[in-house]
Amino acid sequence: MNKIIIAVLCAVINFTAAAQKKNIKTDTFKVLGACEQCKARIETALKNIGTYKANWVIETNMLTVSYDSTKLSKTEISKKLAAVGHDNEEFKTDEKTYNSLPKCCYYDRGVKTVLMKGSIDSLIIEDNNRKNTSNLVGIVLAEDERGVLTPAMGASIRNIQTNSGIIADKGGTFKLPIYLPAKIEVGFVGYKKDTVSINSFDEVKIVLKYSNAHQLKEVIFDSRKPSTYISKQSTLNTLNIGTRELTKAACCNLSESFETSPSVDVSYTDAVTGIKQIQLLGLSGNYIQLTTENTPEIRGLAGSYGLTFIPGPWVEGIQVTKGTGSVANGFESIAGQINIEEKKPDKMEKLFINTYANNMGRLETNIHLSQKINDKWSTALLTHADGVFKKRDANNDGFLDNPVGRQFNLINRWRYADEKGLFAQFAVKAINDKRQSGENDFNEATDKFTSKKYGAGIDVQQYAFSGKLYKYSFFICIAPPVYYIKLSAHWVI
Fold this sequence. Notes:
Layout: H1 2-23, E1 24-30, H2 36-48, E2 53-57, E3 62-68, H3 74-83, H4 95-99, E4 135-143, E5 149-151, E6 156-159, E7 164-167, E8 173-177, E9 182-188, E10 191-198, E11 204-208, E12 228-230, E13 238-241, H5 243-246, E14 265-268, E15 276-279, E16 288-292, E17 295-298, H6 302-305, E18 315-322, E19 336-342, E20 351-357, E21 362-372, E22 377-388, E23 404-417, E24 423-438, H7 444-447, E25 455-469, E26 472-478, E27 484-490
Parallel strand pairs: 4-11, 16-19
Antiparallel strand pairs: 1-3, 2-3, 4-5, 4-8, 6-7, 6-9, 9-10, 12-13, 13-18, 14-15, 16-17, 18-19, 20-21, 21-22, 22-23, 23-24, 24-25, 25-26, 25-27
């Protein structure tokens, strides 16, 4: 009896799934917009009304949307898009809604959109009698086996009358001088050429239909982004160091992330503290501006110690600018500027655990947690703990080769972004670092403030809050004082 019930339930589920799949409809039409924020606004609005899939292409302004035809219609979708500020083929948004959009989202509302139907065997062009000009403006789209339309970048459009032609740009658009009446020939790799009769200068859309009979074998071009590169679009001599390059120097904080970079030299400041110092263009770190996501966080007293306060697994990328940089970030960048990009809450892994240990008694652990709360808010918690617990004296001179001690470090990051163009991110940081060096037999409890043994202690605490809002940034650091650093030395007399 149980087997019969299970069989009936499976049949009902399969029937329901098949019925739902049968009701799914895909439409492609033009929706006016201008930028990435428009894309987020359009796709979010459609997601909220229950569409299965929506993809809006910035270059072509073409929207491909899949939805349940028993619950939604193209008219309802178009009406919703107009309500959030985007003109389309059926509805036009009101002036108040359009003016409330961010300035980067303003689009040209003067061009009347026209949908043209066509196929590879017979391309039929419909127009709406725009004013007579000397240029034919249009777009060429190619349909794939799934019915999805994409811009036909590189499609050839030739005027048969004058034998002149043009190649469609990356958005599939073209502008071709003609005189009426005219015939143009359209060709694209993998599709059969055909001719189209033109009787007006209205904007046209040409759709190349998919056909199994005329498909060529695909060619795949694969490339990898280099681990380090200099952007050709920037006027500054900025070296970008990515995560692939950082993995070559797997250990363990920011000061040790430059060991594979020829642009930055790393050396110890002294054997007592064990702190590393960087040099750029032959000048020490005092002449280098160090920023975290363009926020001047590592400066002043922290310039000597701050490089050890940013664990390597926290770093997403580093930008090294040689020479004097922009004064927008401060006046310290005499030799250059080093900007550190930390991992973002909305792009990092949900759980990350990393550990490191070596035979010198060094142990490190990193645990990262991230959570996307909703479409606007995301947060992440990055924790780090390290310590050197083994006293080491390889040359038997009675003094420690490296300081012993421990460090606790954590950061809680928050990010907000909406479809109206408001961006904000905040971070709360806490650091507690304690080190001790000197003679092997130095005991802080009994030898401190005496002349029995020599020793030096370092105690660093930092509590900081930083944030950015849209194009403006601010940084607040709270600690007892800003950086609480204690140094004590005890010499044998």
